[in-house]
Amino acid sequence: MDSQIEQLTSVECRVRVSVPWTTVGPRLDNKLRDLGKRARVPGFRPGKVPPRVLEKMFGKSARQELANELFQETFETAMSSHAARPLTQPVLESSTLEKGTDFVYAARFEVAPKIEPKDYTGIPVRRRPSVVDEAKIQAELAKKQEELTSIRPIEGDRSKTQAGDVWTIDIDGTIGEEPLSRKDHELVIGKAETEVIPGLSDAMADFELAFVGQAKQVSFVPPPERVKPQFRGAEAKLTLALREVRETVVPELDDEFARDTGDAESLAELTEQIREKVAQEDGDVAEREARQRLVEVLLERNEFDPAPSMVSREVQAQVQQFKQQIAQQGLTLKQLGTSEARMADNMRSQATFNVKAFLLLEAIRSTEGIDVPEDEVEAEIKEMAEAQGQNPTRLRATMEKNNQLLLLRAQMREERVLDFLMNAAEITEAPDPEQPDAVSDGASSEA
Question: Parallel, antiparallel, or unpaired for β 124-127 and 12-19?
Fold first, then answer.
């Protein structure tokens, strides 16, 4: 077999392969003989059909079948001999298999572009200092409050329900013409997410605690913006069997609360811990933003076109990831007023950037000989296992089976390359530039 590869573009090649008749002829004869053993030809006994008759009746289909087999067999061999790595299945451009002549074909396929990275050290990069958002500190304190919040029987002498009370109810009724029934449902007054029908919490807001053990009827029209289109304007008529009511007790933000968290001895100490955590998280975000800017400059200095198939695969991966995310919320693309094709168009620009960044960073890694030792991979898996409460050996086996181990290595290599590039960059610590008033001057600023 003889083969040559021609570089058509930076991401597309053509391979030409020739298989000598001395190899093709015997295989074609065998294929015709096998056909002759199975063929039922009027006037001839099975297995006794003359070769010229077989050639006339089955020659064309036999040659086509053999051509396909040879194409599949020799393409991989040709790729190995030229150390080529196709990104796509080959597209057959031409092939010729005639009796007495060599089998010749040409096929096109995509490859990753060959990149010789340049000007990747000394890149000027701005990194902003971390910023502590007071709202995030309060949100973290509120989260800890919620963790220590308890639900208990109502104490005291109040007679009416209030926000935070948890009612256990059975529901029977209709919304419009649609029947509705629930048993042992827990509804929290003031929490819309616990409502079976939007507006039910408001309908119960004036209930007496003495209603426990009774059945009460309520009717209301749910807020139109919170129900499905078919129920807008429909009245809900419900019978509620009120089985139990308890109150939600939220701890005060004080030193006792701080000690109950087990993290600090005082509220001031707990707040400072959270402040440091928020500062660290924002510092991590600032570092990622700086690395993003570095990669953008790298791509400006190293222009190349990625293989279309790589971009297409990245687009599809992003679309599938988005679909999985919204599916967890019970949504579909159709409900969001879009489609896979529209999402793919919207994501193509980012997907192209991702692919180009990966290829360029991988080229720099290869040039600089950067790699991640296996013991560091093992350490990372061990840390992941501890965080998930799993056995490291079992987690590694699962990751290998799902190809997640390959992804982990790739991510760790990319981080190592970015570490190298940031260390070799000219970093300036400066806050983000202020955004000008677009209404007053019509100008836009650099991101």
Answer: unpaired
Q: What is the CATH number of the domain that holds 175?
A: 3.10.50.40
Q: Within its chain, how far is the Cα of 356 from the centroid?
A: 18
284 and 345 share one domain? yes
Distances in whole angstroms, Cα of residue 107 to Cα of each of 4, 63, 111, 361:
11, 18, 13, 30
Residue 264 lies in a domain: no
**More confident position, 363 or 28:** 363
Closest to 385 measured CA to CA, from 369, 357, 366, 404: 404
Is residue 289 in a domain?
Answer: yes
CATH number of the domain residue 41 falls in: 3.30.70.1050
Strand residue runs (E) in 83-190:
91-96, 103-110, 124-127, 150-153, 166-175, 178-188
For 392, what's the count of Cα atoms within 13 Å in the CB-facing half-sphere? 9
Question: pTM for this structure?
Answer: 0.72
**Model pLDDT for residues 270-306, shown as the tens digit of each residue:** 999 999 999 999 999 999 999 999 999 999 999 999 9
User: What range defines the domain where residue 420 resides?
Assistant: 273-441
Query: Is the dihedral angle over the CA atoms 59, 61, 64, 66 positive or is it negative?
Result: negative
Same domain? For 401 and 286 the reply is yes
Q: Under a CB-based contact definition with an 8 Å cutoff, are residues 17 and 75 in contact?
A: yes
